[in-house]
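Sample intake — CBS domain-containing protein
Collected from: Streptomyces chlorus
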Amino acid sequence: MTLVQMHSRSTSTHTGHRTASDAMDAAGPQVWDDMTVEVALSVMTAARTGHLVVCDEDGQYTDLVTQARLTAVRKSSGYTDRVRLRDISDDGGAFASPLTTVAEAEHAMRHRRLGALPVVDEHGNALGVLALSR
């Protein structure tokens, strides 16, 4: 069985320079890296989200996958229904510290053309996700 975890939204109300911790949304569904692409797409559909936070067997953040990325993997010539999220991992990809300023995070997201950026603490736990406004 593959587990899915949810985290609640930060309630921090600091003034001045807003940090990633102040601005992030709940991490949304967190899934284990042994989940297949097919199951991950089903979880996304059920959760009505465009991304999933991927964790290893210790619950540590490893990647953020999007619906577009999973769909592209599924359409590739080498795809089988046994492909797992760990097989397509970006080895951690980009993430922000809870203390990263919103301006720094926004700059990194625009520079790297990311629609979402996970906020990860010093222990490797995904706390939330920052998303660019459309």
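Post-analysis note: The first helix runs from residue 20 to 23.
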